[in-house]
Amino acid sequence: MKKRFKPLHATPAFLLAFAAACTPEATPPNVIVILADDIGYGDLSCNGETTIHTPNVDKLAENGVRFTDAHAVASTSTPSRYSLLTGHYAWRRNDTGIATGDAGMIIRPEQTTIADLFRDNGYATAAVGKWHLGLGETTGSQDWNGFITPGPSDIGFDYSYIMAATGDRVPCVYVEDQRVVNLDTNDPIAVSYKDSFPGEPLGRNHPELLYIQKPSHGHDMAIVNGISRIGYMKGGKQALWMDENIADSITHKAVQFIERNHDKPFFLYFATNDIHVPRVPHPRFAGKSGMGPRGDAILEFDWSVAQIMAALEKHGLTENTLIILTSDNGPVVDDGYQDQAVELLGDHRPWGEFRGGKYSNFEAGTRVPFIVHWPKKIKWDVSDALVSHIDMFASLAKLIDKPVPEGTAVDSQDQLAALLGEDKKGRDYVIEKAGSISVTTGEWKYIAPNNGAAYSRWTNTELGNDKQPQLYNLSEDIGEKNNVAEEYPEKVNELMNILEREKNK
To answer: CA end-to-end span of the chain, whole Å?
Structure first.
């Protein structure tokens, strides 16, 4: 039975204390992470490129802190997302590479994520959009026609509405709260990444069925909506997404989550599909950028940002919602489809002034757009502080004044002061992984020797692999054109020692 308390005498001191406890300052901030897909540093106009206009992202930057030296810790999707959500470097495991569409869940239920942190402290939590972190216990074991477990609810998310894998991988269905949306049980789904299904046409054999996009390399397996994908699939016809509606669908679900939880603190992980292939923007964006589907998809992403902001404004949540907008890795122009992205690129530089791109050890692979917006606490600024996705866990724990659970997020540091624009230095260094492993201090970057290919002809990307040690003075050579390892052996040894210490932790 609850105890009944006698009323207290309302002294002035008591009233002041009570009023302070009820002021907006005592209200926990909402947190939204907007994670773009394959958007490069130069793909947003706030970062200086005049060939594209992203007005809604620009508004966030104009009223927040825009970072010039922010990093994902991998140059591809799955390891980047893993590290962001767990505060654990993906390279510490050997199973965090680019996930197939039937991969088992890479973040294990026993691990603690950012979503766990928020949910355990009274927040409503949601994951909406691209997932690419696997589902189910093991590869190929998912029950696509029933309840898929483990899933997002096992790692902290109350609600989830996700793409099962990526836009270019089967199964091409939405999964809401771990069940495929709109599934007809009389047309069950089967998925394989080993063997094709008899009678199901493939892109490599039936190019005449590819009426929306054709592959430039790979992506020639199961055909869904006139586009061939990676992997094999049959069934689930009623559940298949329409590519041109993906942004509308996931944005709508994100807005609905905000609507349902506007009267309580919430954490929203909103991972858009733009600009990942296959790029099929909604007709209202088609042709608007002058750069083909890739440019149009950037405009579509900017629209999604506007819808999130409108939902916050509608419920008076803008002031006390911290938004982090970033990208999972750097840009790629031709990533497997003939969508004229190369031919129509013109003067646009998705990578900005950096070298490389997605898949690369060079800066454009991991230096990503990064904006922090929180009108209640942040004033406009441009920061050169070294920040990284790896620190979101510890920094957001500090934001809500909660300790990082012991043994979790072991690589994450509290960099909240840097994210809020108060600390102009940030991290001492960031470890990154593409074909090789590298370390950057902001001023210097070291790439460990590697036997991988130096160049990918498929994506026209310099991968940054070399059998020799590479050292770049980023303060003088932001384009990483001059390897000065032989000139500065002491600096090479210093950075090599950092990598060795990190590896041995």
So the answer is: 50
The secondary structure element, H or E, covering residue 431 is strand 430-433
- The 3-state DSSP class for residue 259 equals helix
Query: Mean pLDDT for each 10-residue chunk of the chain (505 residues)?
Result: 34 41 67 98 97 98 98 98 98 96 98 98 98 98 98 98 96 98 98 97 98 97 98 98 98 98 98 97 98 98 98 98 98 98 98 98 98 97 98 98 96 98 98 96 98 96 98 98 98 98 92
Pairing state between β 370-373 and 381-388: unpaired
Buried b (16+ CB within 10 A) or exposed e, 149-158: ebbbbbbbbb
Residues whose CB is less than 8 angstroms from the CB of residue 125 and which lie 6 or more positions away in sequence, other chains included = 115, 118, 119, 156, 157, 158, 159, 266, 267, 268, 269
Question: Nearest Cα to 370, choosing from 141, 60, 3, 149?
Answer: 60
Contact 46, 57 (CB under 8 A): yes
Distance of alpha carbon 456 from alpha carbon 463, whole angstroms: 7
Rounded Cα–Cα distance for residues 501 and 504 (Å): 5
Give the span between the Cα atoms of 40 and 52, in whole angstroms. 12
pTM above threshold 0.90: yes
φ, ψ for residue 370, nearest 5 deg: -160, 115
User: Residues near 404 by Cβ (< 8 Å), separated by ≥ 6?
Assistant: 87, 117, 393, 394, 397, 412
SS3 47: helix
Residue 430: beta bridge partners? 440
- Which of 232, 212, 213 is CA-nearest to residue 222? 232
What is the Cα–Cα distance from 444 to 448, expressed in whole angstroms? 13
Q: What angle do CA 374, 161, 339 make, to 5 degrees?
A: 90
Can you read off the two tokens belonging to residue 455? 């160049």
